[in-house]
Amino acid sequence: MTQGRLLPAPSSQPPISQAFVSKLPASELPVSERLTVGNVAGSEQTGCWVEVLVDCPGVQGVFTYGLSAGLTVQPGDILSVPFGAQQIGGVAVRCFHELPNGVNLAQIREVDGVIARDFFPPSYWTILLRVSEYYCTPLMQVIRMALPTGLLGRSQRRIKLSRDHQQEPPSEVPPHPTLPVAQQILTWLQSSKTGDYSWQHLQRQVPNAYRGLQELLKLGWVESYLQPPTPIRPKQRQAVTLVDHADRALLSPRQQEVLRVLQRQGGELWLTDLLALCQTSSTTLKAIAQKGYLVIQPREVLRSESGVARSPDVPKALTPDQATALAAILPLTGYTSVLLHGVTGSGKTEVYLQAIAPLLPQGKSAIVLVPEIGLTPQLTDRFRARFGDRVCVYHSALSDGERYDTWRQLLTGVAQVVIGTRSAIFAPLANLGLIVLDEEHDSSFKQDQPSPCYHARTVAQWRAELEQCPLILGSATPSLETWLQCQETADHERSAPPTPLYLSLPTRVQARPMPAIEVVDMRQELSRGNRSIFSQALQSALHHLHESGEQGILFIQRRGHSTFVSCRSCGYVVMCPHCDVSLAYHQIHAEARPVLRCHYCNYTQAHPEVCPDCQSPYFKHFGSGTQRVTQALEQEFPALRVLRFDSDTTRTKGAHRSLLTRFAQGEADLLVGTQMLTKGIDLPQVTLVGIVAADGLLHLSDYRASERTFQVLTQVAGRCGRGDRPGRVILQTYSPDHPVIIAVKQQQYESFIQTELEQRATLHYPPYGRLILLKFSGLSPGIVQATAVKIAAALQPLQEQGVERLGPAAAAIERVARRYRWQILLKVPATVAIAAAFFSNLRDLCPSSVSFTIDVDPLSIG
Ligand code: ADP
Ligand code: ZN
Ligand code: ZN
Predict the structure, then answer these.
(1) Measuring from atom 10 of ligand 1, which residue has the nearest CA?
(2) C-beta of residue 210 within 8 angstroms of C-beta of residue 113
(3) What pLDDT does residue 701 have?
(4) Which of 220, 287, 353, 604 is the most buried (most CB within 10 A)?
(5) How far apart are CA 500 and CA 521, in angstroms?
């Protein structure tokens, strides 16, 4: 029978409306499309309800359903549920025994059945719920952030004969179905060789199949399951490969140039990339190909991307410190958090690699989080070289399709290593054996917007606890939060939270020295008549760089982030008398007189014309963007070959990798860039690091300015002297006596952090108490401000519990993208707990024209 054969898996999966949804018979149509009256008798008996995530075209949300007696459901199961007149697929998110407030029993319908069990690890949903609760964000918003959309859309529901009833005679024949439709379905299934059809096909063959299926499922004749979509084959693209040829004399200079570019890139590139790099046409390339100097052919991946053809890497013989750290990590079972405090270049990555290696043969997986994708190519390469294609990269820059494919690969249950940015903490891996956060102090682990404003380190802690696996936090400059946790346990021998394990790698591998840090006082440069943004010392170092063929990195504070005002002659900075942060430069529109304002408490004063301390006229808004610096470099060092590495030049996909590769291959003398440079770049030939002006960081009007400055400066200094030649760091500043600058120069992390902790304790800033930032924005300044004032009044009950309220105040940059921004900062003592419901009630006070974001544990305030 031709129809009896299995349908081949269609190449383009049908949308969920066909694959997953079936119409109920007309007699069961509810009055409206909304969830309406259903049979609740079963739920009343079992007292069990389940929240189901429904995500298919036209319907998205989390809905409550009842469970009939005998049906057990676990979070992570895929269910079939009635919705309006349809049957649709959904994921069980949470089961509970008491109906939540506000849900009307009469409106609840029942789950039809389980399509696939344990599709997600059950603890996965616990994490999402916890994020929703702690970060005061509706669950659906959390799910939207974590899951690719339409995850169920491309899956196919299939029906098969239960194993017992495939052979005749079955071991134990269940009662025969009574409905004719049920008998019809059974006949169809029995006539198929495998006893298996897609639900879609059965529905086409048997009218009103739905009721028949219900009976068969109930009697145990058949089972229902989800067929994962066939993996989408990677797209083929044109790649260009260099062919070895000794004699290029016959080629034109232009053609030779193309070959040289290709050679510098490792002899292989995507056609489109090569065209862009050489500004040439495919006709030119084809002409060279015809002469036999290169080959153009379709390929799935480049060798360098897949990493498969890379020479496999073997574990390195560990240094004694690395060995001690690894020996402490390997025996850990259950949840333990570990701080791996290793100076830059001490070989933390090798410890991660060797900690993960024994997990994979045990069927366990690992998640490795890194701050930014700019760092990932190098790290990913090292992991691929060690673990081959078990390594999977997951980050927000993936396209929807790639994200979806990666997700489905992770759900297969095969042990793997996921490397990614903060959102990878939500990778749906079962059987986690280890979570690593590299550079755990980095603020890009925190999401600022949209909600949920989660911190990947916090979520990682919850996840490791739930999965009972170790969590390694690695850094050369640990965050105050992590440091304090370690200390508290040491000081007071507390048992809860569980003892973080402190492991230290105090020296660089192969006893390479830490780079020497020279601090240059820019006030003196000015008084000596040097108006250049480069000090004498940096100028001569840059000249030397070019002559000696060594490489350097020039670090510039990110544009648009310095809002403080300072004196170029004496370094004076205006501070808020109440909050211990610098006042921010504030100008509402171009003609308005600028003012200085604290955006914690709204203290405001006029912008002084001259320095209040020394009367110097060089008293202005501070800033030196990448463009200004590259221009100055061009004028003052025309021979220096410069590459820009910042958010402008790394916007396109793969740009990070190609810029770093070009720099590593010696295409430039100097890499100029912003914060991105601080993150884990490991290039042995870099011997010079220049910091144009540390002040942009020092005086960020934020209570974390000192901590962040210490971290960024230490990290960027750590980029040099990683090879055989020692490194040199030139740090320019107008505040050479600032305690942070002194601590960085002396590489004294512990004493610095001790002072900083004392100050935080005095002012009740984290980690001694929590902050919650309420942010308001909208097009009308009046309405935004009025809303902030109204909400501030509603916070009275919190203040009675001891919560301190700062503001409402205009944000540091009051107008962004035509929207006015106001905020309220709450200082919550560690002893006070605030119910998530308190904040969701506040949302009702907010008019729809104002957007209201709750940022729990904010890292930047302004
Ligand atoms: P970190 O992450 O601590 O800054 P890395 O892990 O990047 O340091 O290591 C710095 C360099 O030292 C890397 O090039 C790495 O390959 C090398 N390295 C690490 N461990 C060893 C070892 N045990 N023996 C030799 N080289 C090592
Ligand atoms: Zn001054
Ligand atoms: Zn203030």
Answers:
(1) 345
(2) no
(3) 66
(4) 353
(5) 40
